[in-house]
Every structure is written in structure tokens, then in C-alpha cells.
Amino acid sequence: MAALPAQRENDSLACDAPAHDGAGPRGQGGSGLPGSPLAPGTARALLRAAFAEWADQGLLGPEGGARLADDAMAVVSELVTNAVVHAGTDVDVAWCLEDTGAFVVEVSDQHPSRAPRDVAGGETPCDTPEYGRGLRLVATLADSWGVTYRTGTKTVWARLPPGGVPDPVGPAPEQSLAVAEDLAPQPQRPGSDRDWLGRGALSFLAEASDLLAGQLDENLVVALTGQLIVPRLADWCAVWLEDEASARAGDGGGPSRVWHAGESRVEELRRALEKEPPCPREGLRSGPEPYSWPGDALGPQGGVGAALAYRLIAGGRPLGTLVIGRCGLLRFPDEITGLVEDLSRRVALAIGAARQYARQATISAVLQRGLLPGAVAEIPGLRSALVYEPCDKGGPSGDFYDLFPAGDGRWCFAVGDVQGKGPEAAVVIGLARPWLRLLAREGYGVADVLDRLNQLLLDDATEAADAAARALVAVGGRPMATGDGPQSRFLSLLYGELTPLDGGGARCTLASAGHPLPLVLCPDGTVRTAARPQTLLGVVEDETYLSETLELRPGDSLLCVTDGVTERRSGARQFDDGDGLARALSGCAGLSAERIAERIRRLVHDFGGGLPEDDLALLVLQAE
């Protein structure tokens, strides 16, 4: 890492500089930005859109694209922040993606007489003390960077290697902590609080907001909070988290986390803080409030100091309390108390969002369990194997399955896929699965079950539309917000009935309503389709469905899948293009039901090269 940035020898766009080995650009862009605190966020949004476009065009390799984008976002944000804070002028940003896969960015301002903050945190050539993280983050992420001076402008540029810089720290939570380490303001010098506030506080808060807002675990939010505060803004801090049903931070006992600039003091400080939990005043006031100084726990140097407590409040609810302390002071400077109060609001919002996410995830998991059978029935003379993998995005899956006894020596099976996910999908599955079981046990045949289920979905959609219309009238005919109206409740379903035969095998009657067609694998490896395509359920009034009957002989296997299998994508291709599923199944001849299911699952995963983006369900029924 160079102590001083090198000056480029070329005044053209970064991608044309000799320092970049003459590599041409795959993609490039840029924009002029006003010199305001909003500029870093605008630059990040523009660059995020550029990376999304490059990804769609296939310009980013399969490995490292996400890491390079994250590194680029951090570097651009830092360079724009430096230009706004130190130059105070409008900013020009230009970037490109080299043919080598490296990313290059230039940020120019109109104040070339002031150099950017030095990596080592020292003073700039114009003898103005500058404090903050400076270009340490840029120097860490870039394989080369520097400054170019032109007439009337100064440009700071950086080049990031293909795939980004590997993070030596480890998994995601530790990576976030490492970012927080670079993000936090540097230790203050006497009398410099006011100066730092004027130059770096806004950018610090903006970047801290981005870092905290991206976390969905409240414990990680708390960990990041301590990393941001100690030792830069305070010598120590602690966070108490309140239980959802608790009204006071002290009700839960000791602090959730404690930090001290000296690690050896953490446990002793924790014991002292446990004896005096913060007691916030009545009402919802974020603070700061005075807090008693735990001098005995801080050693000989901690006899005198100031401590403040900030209530963490979001959405009108108290979520906890943040306490900070600084040795050698009788009171905190106003600049620091105001900054920490702003930071505490962001911490509270991040904790609230993480808790909301956790609640929603719990509700979704409970709801998902309730929408699926607790056990899959065992059928005499048949072996079954099931693969069910919800992609877990946005709540309950839209795929479902069932295999249950229907009485009189009959067993029924279903594999379905609801349009959409989340609560709307849960409503449809909550209607369909119980009605399938009820109608089957009442003795209705396969075609009659589909006829009645189709009408049930249409009736339910009509009732939902009527309720929405009444609600619209009740609010004076004002237009509904997007997503507030009734949603179409379409269902693709493969439904069948099995009757074991005395000589082995089973008679299978089945029908497909807008669903991927089932396939039968014979012992010799031949594959045939076992049903004809018919209309989705919940679309056409008075639709009449037809069923087909076939015999599964010993050794025959019936494969039923959802479109998460057939429409699995690899670029422009789908897994079932050119009868890809039938070819894959033909290679499973001689395998057990369990091994067929596992091989198809693995082939589907391998086809896309990454995690599936849609729910996946498949059922194998094999006659013995």
C-alpha cells in the first residue's frame, strides 16, 4: 500500500490508461453529480444498475461478479464522499469494465489544490488536519489507485482486480465487521470533534446506514454497532436489548453485548454494568440520558469519565438501550452526543427491521409446515420418493404435494403449483389440499375432483373480487394501491388415484390440469408420457376435465414434477428443452425410487450451475 497516491500519465478515461495494460472496455458509464450528501447514494444506485445490466449481458463471469460489485460499490461511495466532503464541488464519475474483468473508476472534482486524505491518516499537503478513514478502504480493495491533476480538476482513480479482493476474514458476519472497522471514523485528537463533524459525520452516517440496513440478524446489528463506536467515538459501549413483551431495558438482566477499547476490561465492565442496568424515563425519548460511571471496572485510567444512555426506539416501540462511555471527560462534546444520537436511531431501525424479518420468517415456516402433509402414506406394492425444495423467497412456497389413503383400497397423490408465492399462494393451497382429501374420501373420481376444485377456486375468486369492490366503495371509490386488489388464484395440478393389484403393480388413474405431464419409466429404459395437457384450475368456468388410466407394472416408475424442474434455466435454455427431462429419466433405468429422485434433483441443480430460483418438487412412484 503506497503512502502517497501515484499520478496517472494519461488524461483519458481510466480504461485507456497505460497502467491498465491497454485493456479495452466491456462496458462503461458515468454521470455528473451535485456536490451534496446525496451524491454517494446516487453514485451507488447508478453503479448498481450498471452491474445489473452487465450481468444480464453476460459480461460478468460466473465467479466473483457479486464480490466485484460489492467492492466497486464501496470504492465508488468512498471516492465520491471524499470529493464532496473535501472539494465541496460538483463531481463527475466515470467507470468501465475491462476485457480482463477488472473494474476501473474515476471520480473528478473541481478543486485540484486539495489532495485527498492520506492513507496513513496524516495531514494533507495544504496542512489542513483531516481525520477519518480516508482512502484506507480504497487502498485495501484496489490493486492500484492514484490521482491525476488536470487544469481545473483533480481525479482520483482506482482499479479493482477481476472478482474483487478475497476477504481473508471469513464468512459474511465477519466480513460485515471488517467493513465496519474501515467505515468508522478514526480516533479523535483533542479539540477535533467539531472539525470532524463538519467534514465527515454526514458521510459516516450515510455509510453506516447502508451497512446496518443490509443486516437481517439483530445480533449482527448489535455487533456492528459496537464496532462502529469503539474506540472511535467512545472508549466503551454496551447494548441492552429488550424482549418484545418487556417495557424496560433492565428487565432482561445484563447487557447483550459489551465492548471496551482494551479487551482485558470487557468482562469486568460487563459485571459492573449488570448491577446497574439503564432505567429510562417514562415515555419514548431516545436520549441521551446521564448514566452512572463504572469507574472501578475501568482500571486506574478510568477513575473519571462521562457515560450516556440512548434509548433505541423504532416504530413507537422501545427495542433496547445503547450506553457509551469516554474516559477523562466530565461530559461528552455536543458534537459527539448528537452524532451518536443519529447513529442510535439508525441502529434502532435496523434492529426493528431484523426483528420484523425474523417474525415473518417464523410465520412463513409455521405456515409452510401447516400447508404440507405431516407424513407421506405408504402404499402396498409401491415405493415412493419425494424431493421438495422451496426456494424460500418471500414467504410460503407455491409448490405443494400430498400422498394419502382415500379408503376402499385406494390411495391418492397430488403435485401442485400455485401462481405466485407468499400469502396468496398459502390461501390457494389451504383451499386445495383439504378439498382434495375430502372429495377423494367421499368417493369422487379423479375427473370429478378436478371439476369441483376448479369451481371452488372460481367461486372463491369471485367472493374475493366482491369483497374488494365493497371495500372500494367504502373508501369513496378511491383507487386501490398496487397489490391491494384480489389476485388471480390459478393452480396447476397433477392429481391421481392408485389401486394396488393382486399380482403386483397398481392401476393408476390421473389427470393433469395445466401441469408438467407425468412420465413413466419402464425397466428397459423407455419413457412415455402418462397424461394429456388440460386447462389450469381456476381459469375457465364449467370446465370439464378428463382422466386417463394406465397400469404400472412391477419395475415401472412414475415421475411427477413441478415447473421448477422442467423450467430450470441455464442461460437461454431450459432443462426440459428437447425432452430433456425424458432423456434424464431414461438414464435412471434399474434405479430405486429414492435414487431416481436424487439423480433428477442433482441433474436439475447441476444444469443451472447455482441454487434454483424457483420452488422444486418431484414425486417418484415405483411399482414393486
How would you characterize this protein structure?
With 624 residues, the protein is α+β, with helices and mostly antiparallel strands. Helix content is 35%, strand content 23%. It has 13 helices and 23 strands. It has helices at residues 39-56, 65-87, 136-141, 172-183, 193-213, 218-229, 266-275, 334-371, 422-441, 446-474, 563-566, 580-586, 593-608, and strands at residues 6-7, 25-33, 91-98, 103-109, 144-150, 153-160, 236-241, 257-260, 289-290, 305-314, 317-327, 382-389, 399-407, 410-418, 491-500, 506-513, 519-521, 527-529, 548-552, 557-561, 569-570, 573-574, 616-623. The strands form five sheets. It has a six-stranded mixed sheet with strand order 1-5-6-4-3-2. A five-stranded antiparallel sheet has the order 8-7-11-10-9, sandwiched between helices. It has a five-stranded antiparallel sheet with strand order 12-23-20-17-18. α2 packs antiparallel against α5 (193-213). The protein is elongated. Residues 1-23, 113-134, 167-193, 246-252 and 480-486 have low confidence and may be disordered.
Question: How would you concisely characterize the structure shown here?
Answer:
With 624 residues, the protein is of the alpha+beta class. The protein contains 13 helices and 23 strands. The strands form 5 sheets. It has a 6-stranded mixed β-sheet.
Approximate shape: elongated
* Strand content bin: 15-25%
Main β sheet profile: 6 strands, mixed
How many beta-strand elements?
23
Low-confidence stretches: 1-23, 113-134, 167-193, 246-252, 480-486
Q: Report the radius of gyration as a whole number of Å.
A: 31 Å
Q: What percent of residues adopt helix (DSSP H or I)?
A: 25-40%
Report the average pLDDT across residues: 78
Name the strands of the widest sheet in spatial order.
1-5-6-4-3-2
